[in-house]
Amino acid sequence: MTEQTTAVHANTLKSRSDIPFYTIFIIISSIYVLLIVAMLAAETTYTTPDHIWGAFAKPEIRYAIWLSLVSCAITTVLSLWVSVPIGYLMSRHDFRGKTLVDAILDIPIVLPPLVIGLCLLIMFQVEVPQIEWVNNLLKSISGALFGKELFVAQGDSVDDMIRKTTGLLFGKPFGVTYEIPSVILAQFMVACAFAVRTMRVTFDQIGPRYEQVALTLGCNRGQAFWRVVFPQAYRGLLAAGTLAWARSLGEFGPILIFSGATRMKTEVLPTTVFLELTVGNIEGAVAASLIMVVSAMFVLVIARMFGLTRTGI
Amino acid sequence: MISVNKLCVQVGDFKLNEISFEVPEGHYAVLMGKTGSGKTTILETICGLKKVLSGTIQLNGKFVTHAKPAEREIGYVPQDGVLFHTMTVRDNLAFSLELRKWNKQQIDDRVDELASLLGITGLLDRTPYGLSGGETQRVSLGRALAAKPAILCLDEPLSALDEGTRDEMCVLLRDVQRMTRVTTLHITHNVSESDRLGDMKFQIVEGAVQRLSSKTAGEFANLTGQKSQETGATSEKSAKMKAE
Fold first, then answer.
1. Which residue in A127, A295, B46, B199 has the most C-beta neighbors within 10 A?
2. For chain A, how many helices (H) and strands (E)?
3. What three-state secondary structure class fits B222?
4. How far is A280 from chain B (nearest CA, A)?
5. Contacts of B166 (CB under 8 A, 6+ apart)
6. Which residues contact A242 (CB under 8 A, 6 or more apart)?
7. B78 in contact with A at a CB cutoff of 8 Å?
8. What Cα–Cα distance (Å) separates residue B113 from each residue in A34, A224, B51, B182?
9. Would you tell me which residues 213-232 of chain A have a C-beta closer than 8 angstroms to some C-beta of chain B?
């Protein structure tokens, strides 16, 4: 009797197959993977190579490629400089208000990109208050150094003051808003938040033990960081760099608002895609987006080569 | 000499109160205690890695209670070796010497001397990746001893090793300590390790450090031997799992 029951149980257990489970999971997964591949295939086969080369020949698109590459490179370097100290401090130290700082650091990630652009635009249009002693100090310093007086006039915004200062320093005034620096700043605001997150995870993973040993061996905090922790963080640094670069290459919303979409001035590749589409030149849009696709692939390959997949990116 | 007097330390919610003990110069002291009893905290406080609330720490007659770790001249061997992975074994050994600005010849001589003492000459040009547990601990010991510290602190250095390697390391630690006469504080929960190595034994029970005479140490071993061996085996396993 007992044997029979066991046999029946064994039979019912055997009959449960794993096939339905895997079939459903594989179907769902393949749909998404195929969608990605199809999307890219459609774009790459949409136009002929002639059209694409034609688009490349246009000076506006060449300028956009140049500006994108240069601004992304600068943004990446800036992001790494900023993310290393923030990531390290947040990973190693507990202090009052840490939760608040942590939340603030995540704001650029969760805020809609357009809103970031708008905030930046408004920030640079804020009127600088006229404070008499500051004005007097400015006047005397600039008068002594450059022979011209620099001061805050009625209704001057932050951007106006930057224009005045650069005019005095370099002989040619240039501001931030609607100029190339605004492109870099807009990219930096978002890209850096991602780099900070990556660096923090990196330092969390390294753990404080290595520095502790280095401290007992005779290092001060700085030596322990630069000699022991920083070299170990190179993978994270590379991950943060590629991530910041990829984010800044695709940045569009804040740039549109904060820098405008002026051809041959503040036009980056995403702006080109947008501008070409609005005038109905799909070949141009495709050419510009193909450059971004190739760059993204390149970054992905580099990231995989260095085994960065486990850093959670 | 290590002299700890009425030391109070707090780490998170864990607090150690009024800890006092003394290890005379040239002795090999073993501090035993259960997991979570605060052994590592005491060791790290002596090394200057934890903030002291009150009490004093004296090393070789000098008060170092609030001194920076670098000023204490302690060789510290952490539990799992914690070698610097971006450097070769040679650079690991030379690390503290480079900080002290020894010249190249002196560094090379000292590294060679340590390597032959610890039997790691063949490993000098490798990176720490792929070293066995025993090799890692040898390099870690060498790195700690390089600058000829007066005090050596060992944080469960043998707990992640298999039985054979542990025996070898016990002999090595004993020989190295005899040769260098470095005052050593070794923490462990393994009774046989403490019997083989320690010429002074301390035990931490309910937040207080007690000195055990050799006889009481034997009794302690008899009483808790089986239990501590069991816990030893478990923590070995967990350490290995962590390492993997």
1. B46
2. 16, 0
3. helix
4. 54
5. B158, B193
6. A299, A302, A303, A308
7. yes
8. 62, 26, 35, 16
9. 213-220, 223, 227-228, 231-232
Angle at A254 between CA A250 and CA A258, to 5 degrees: 130
| Tens digit of each residue's pLDDT (9 = 90 or more) over B182-226 | 999 999 988 888 888 988 999 998 888 888 875 444 444 454 444
Please tell me the distance from the alpha carbon of residue A112 to that of residue B84, in angstroms, as a whole number: 42
Residue B198 parent element (H or E)? none
Pull the structure tokens for residue B159.
């707990």
pLDDT, tens digit, for every residue of A184-197? 999 999 999 999 99
End-to-end CA distance of chain A: 57
Contact residues, B window 25-44, toward A, CB-based 8 Å cutoff: 44
From A219, A227, A231, residue closest to B70, measured CB to CB? A219
State ipTM.
Answer: 0.85
Rounded Cα distance, A179 and B72, in Å: 55
Phi first, then psi, for residue A291 (nearest 5°) are -60, -40
Per the structure block, which two tokens stand in for B53?
A: 């609330």
Tokens representing A198 are 């990556």
**Do B6 and B20 form a contact (C-beta atoms < 8 A)?**
yes
Count contacts between A and B (CB, < 8 Å). 58
Q: Cα(A137)–Cα(B57) distance, rounded to whole angstroms? A: 53
Please, are residues A190 and A270 in contact by the beta-carbon 8 Å criterion? no
> For residue range A218-256, what is the model confidence (pLDDT) as tens digits?
999 999 999 999 999 988 998 899 889 989 999 999 999
**Token duo for residue B85:** 């992975």
Helices (H), A93-173: 98-110, 113-125, 132-146, 158-170
- Closest CB to A219: pick one of B47, B99, B143: B99
pLDDT tens track for A108-142: 999 999 999 999 999 999 988 888 888 888 888 88
Confidence (pLDDT) at B115: 94
The helix/strand/coil state of B101 is coil
CB B83 within 8 A of CB B140: yes
